[in-house]
Amino acid sequence: MTAAYLEVTDLNSKKVKYIPVPRPSTMSPYTAWISKLSDTDVLLAPLGTGGVVTVDMGGYVRLWETGLDNLQRSLMEWRGMIGSEDGRPIQITIQRDSGLDVSSPKHGKVDPNNDPHVGGNQWAGGTGGRDTAGLGGKGGPYRLDSGHKVYQVSQMEKDAVPDEVKQAAREMGEKAFKERLKEIQMTEYDASTYERISGAVRRQVQSLRIILDSLQAKGKERQWLKNQALGELDDSKIIDGLTGEKAIYKRRGELEPELGTPQQKPKRLRLLVDVSGSMYRFNAVDGRLERSMEAVCMVMEALENYEHKFKYDIVGHSGDGFDIELVRSDKVPKNNKERLQVLKTMHAHAQFCMSGDFTLEGTEHAVQELAREEADEHFVVVLSDANLERYGISPDRFARILTINPQINAFAVFIGSLGDQAERLQRMLPSGRSFVAMDTKQIPQILQQIFTSTMLSSA
């Protein structure tokens, strides 16, 4: 697939390099006859200093940079554009149509050698293919990560999958998820798996418990407000009234609690966690699903035996919906086995759910539900991977929902990001309402900021 080579000579370093020029993918009928007369498929001309221009028989014009200074400048511009300075992996996306159709979803054959398979429709755990369980493909029933480099088909190809194939894939995924849930509930407690997750956040759990111990009551209490100009006559002010004092009445009203006052009601927390397909798909890239599981484990462990201070539940959101029950407020996990079941359910759901995003719906539903409950304070914390652009979700809409009810303290914590997605989204949301945590160790400090921000806002 090479029409010619550019020979580039660097006289300073005494090096010669050859750059392949691709062969035309299409040929115009008006220029096809030229190929029979000409000795070459490509014509070349100089382009100022440090570059050349080529044109081939298909009419493709390409500009080539060959000068060292120009190349270095372009490289720096490219790195700045894609944000590689933070040390995270660089991803290059090439849009092209595979030209292959889907048939029907299936698990696929299991390769005993676990060799990488790209673009086919036979093997389970392949990438960029179709019909089978894998990553980056189309028409498959669910995701399956075999630990190989992922090749991704375009979103346009995925959207073009026929509805009947999508429906069959959904049904197969739902069946596999139900079977996985049965396995999770029946499996013996896996101490090593839980220790791996719990051990990574042990210090953070202790830090969070210290923060919980220091939280003050915030709920206003109804008390008699004295020295009022209107209301019921205050018996202790009768003499003052005879002397002409006007503020001799009292009435029932709400007062901010004094420092150290015990809570009359527990604070209410809903942790809204992202268990969408992108969490599983990009977990190998930046560990976002693992980080989310660690964060949930941290909250469950830290809030154990703090029922008098905090009433919490954990709800998932994904392409399957916005109110996926993980932990009920009246049935929180009491031991490591129950907590591990929650974590395994998160992982399984992200693997088997359909593509899509219900972050906004989940946040709005959480705000509305908590507003109906009496509590010392209300908190909604949304864990998300910031992958909102793909579904056309604007930061303005997210910002409106986070601030829709002044009685509900709603915050977003982005625990995954492709490039600088999370940072850009954070900059466009209201100040103090969003955080970026690419390390689980940052989450206790973020929760401390969330809990104490309400005290500062009322000061």
Which characteristics define this entry?
elongated; 4 domains; 459 residues; Rossmann fold; alpha/beta; six-stranded mixed beta sheet; 35% helix; three-stranded antiparallel beta sheet; 20% strand; 15 helices
Describe what this molecule looks like in 3D:
By secondary structure, this protein is of the alpha/beta class. The chain folds into four domains: 81 residues, no CATH class; 61 residues, no CATH class; 215 residues, von Willebrand factor, type A domain (Rossmann fold, 3-Layer(aba) Sandwich), CATH 3.40.50; 35 residues, no CATH class. 35% of the residues lie in helices and 20% in strands. It has 15 helices and 16 strands. The strands form five sheets. It has a six-stranded mixed β-sheet, sandwiched between helices. A three-stranded antiparallel β-sheet has the order 3-4-5. The longest helix is centred in the middle third of the chain and has 24 residues. The model has no long low-confidence stretch (mean pLDDT 83). This is VWFA domain-containing protein. It comes from Alosa alosa.
